[in-house]
Design brief:
With 541 residues, this protein is an alpha/beta fold. It is built from 19 helices and 22 strands.
């Protein structure tokens, strides 16, 4: 087999000659039953299929990539990744019968930067034997390159290997898939303060996210325990606040992770949690904390606190919209679990609050608003944990996005008032709750109890992998396969809720993750990330 790659703009044909072809196979090749649902995770919003089986042999398939002029390298790279994760068994099986000889990928817009508004929809058409006889190939159409990435992942999940014939195959042809996500924001939070997560680990998480069409890395970069980011403006933050001199992120490290995410259609949204959860700041700059013995929330009474915050935010966001290490249009500023007792116990802070005719509550709002204004001045929309809504409600800037995590009515109240919401309820979608089961996560509905109009303000949600008990050794098996249940809830139609019907597909998806080198734990574990209970098939544990 030979291979070559080239790329040209719309109106012409670029081809990549690849060492495989699709062929007819017997119906016995069909994989594990999925009770009528497509063997795809997350399930497409719309699809139809037939009853034939087409397979991959050792011939050649021309992949045509059609994009606007001067663009296409990202899609070529995505195609390369598709090949490497899909055709994992070397085979020299002979070609038999008519075969598909082309895959055409047509993309209207190759997006350089992925944002919340980026169109992720795609269409796939896979012919049956009659279509093959008319020289029809697989067709992929997408509005953007991100849609094309999702289409390649879906196609990859449809292609299986037959160990008897030594051919790859697609069952249930012909296929027509018209797919798009229900929610635009589908995240996993990764906490790199409670435990440092090396760049290689983060890249592994990003790869696994793309397999389930999870499209936001919510990077909880700092917290009370450690400050691993090398801030150019205030270098003592990591010099004194990191766990060690080897558990730090340079700006180049962050650039690499964000770029790795971008090439997979994933947004990277950074969180600097303030004014609470900021005790690590005190190690390098003790003057911005109330006292040596009472370190958080940060000190509102000194302008130095806001100088440091502005420096950190500038280093991350680059000072204007679309710039910086994290060029996403959103930034998370935390705001949760603020216990103002430290302010009452510190004479200088208490007097400042009194002299400014404030209460501890209004001082908390002052800090939230002033920090938000820094990020907003750099062109960012601000996300905050629900406590800022619970405490301040409509006093918050109308552009604030509220992330619900506690068992309150924050989603109902905030959307009723016209605020956008991200849904990540702790008792349901917190991945550090090791007794949380996939089926409870799967049946959780972000828009429960609110109107369809309010639901339009729920931009999405996600699984939160807080880092108290995870590091590079166990993050994948703690996240997976339960994040898959959240992924389908956020991508697929609301009506897809039957756990008995979903379970065989989730088993299959978990096995696919394992085959791709992702350490996904058994689906039916009593506790997340525990080992398989006994010998047995991946598809039954």
């Amino acid at each position: 087999s030979s291979a070559h790659i080239s790329h040209i703009p719309h109106g012409m044909v670029a081809s990549k000659i690849l060492p495989f072809v699709l062929f007819s196979l017997s119906h016995s090749a069909v994989a594990h039953s999925t009770f009528g649902q497509a063997p795809i995770w997350p399930h497409p919003s719309n699809c139809t299929s037939g009853s034939e089986v087409v397979a991959v042999s050792s011939g050649k398939l021309a992949v045509q990539i059609l994009t606007p002029a001067g663009k296409g390298k990202d899609i070529e790279d995505a195609v390369d990744r598709f090949f490497s994760r899909t055709f994992t068994h070397r085979t020299t099986a002979a070609e038999k019968g008519p075969a598909i000889t082309s895959v055409a990928i047509s993309v209207e817009d190759v997006v350089d930067v992925v944002q919340l508004e980026t169109d992720e929809s795609y269409e796939i058409v896979i012919p049956d034997s009659d279509g093959i006889s008319k020289n029809h190939g697989i067709e992929i159409n997408a509005k953007t390159s991100v849609g094309a990435y999702h289409a390649l992942e879906t196609l990859s999940q449809l292609i299986r290997f037959n160990f008897t014939s030594k051919l790859y195959y697609i069952a249930q042809a012909p296929w027509t898939i018209d797919d798009k996500p229900r929610f635009k924001h589908r995240e996993v939070l990764v906490d790199t303060s409670r435990h440092f997560e090396p760049v290689a680990v983060l890249k592994g998480v990003l790869d696994s996210m793309s397999y389930a069409k999870i499209n936001v890395l919510h990077w909880h970069l700092t917290d009370s325990q450690s400050f691993p980011f090398d801030s150019a403006s205030f270098p003592r933050l990591s010099e004194f606040g990191a766990y060690s001199d080897q558990e730090r992120y340079s700006s180049e490290d962050i650039e690499d992770v964000v770029e790795y995410a971008r090439k997979r259609g994933i947004r990277a949204v950074v969180e600097i949690d303030t004014p609470g959860h900021a005790g690590s700041f005190c190690k390098g700059y003790p003057e911005i904390c109330p006292s040596d013995t009472c370190q958080e929330p940060l000190n509102p009474a000194t302008n130095r606190t806001f100088e440091v915050l502005e420096g950190i935010i500038f280093d991350l966001l680059g000072g204007e919209k679309g710039k910086g290490l994290f060029y996403d249009n959103m930034m998370h500023l935390g705001g949760d679990e603020v216990n103002t007792e430290c302010w009452n116990k510190t004479d200088s802070v208490r007097k400042w609050i009194e002299n400014n005719n404030m209460t501890t509550s209004s001082a908390y709002l002052y800090m939230v608003k002033r920090t938000q204004e820094i990020a907003q001045s750099m062109g960012r929309q601000v996300i905050g944990w629900e406590e800022i809504w619970n405490n301040f409600g409509t006093k918050l800037d109308k552009g604030t996005i509220i992330q619900q995590w506690r068992n309150t009515n924050a989603t109902q109240e905030a959307t009723a008032a016209g605020y956008r919401v991200i849904w990540s309820m702790s008792g349901h979608w917190y991945l550090d709750w090791l007794d949380g089961k996939w089926d409870a996560m799967y049946t959780t509905e972000p828009c429960e109890g609110i109107s369809d109009k309010q639901c339009e303000l729920v931009i999405g949600g996600g699984g939160e992998m807080w880092g108290e008990s995870v590091d590079g050794s166990d993050i994948q098996q703690t996240v997976w396969p339960r994040l898959g249940a959240i992924a389908e809830r956020l991508w697929s139609p609301r009506t897809l809720r039957d756990t008995d019907v979903a379970l065989p597909r989730l088993h299959s998806f978990r096995c696919l993750l394992v085959q791709r080198g992702v350490a996904a734990a058994p689906v039916l574990n009593d506790a997340a990330r525990s080992s398989p209970p006994h010998p047995g098939s991946c598809y039954a544990q």
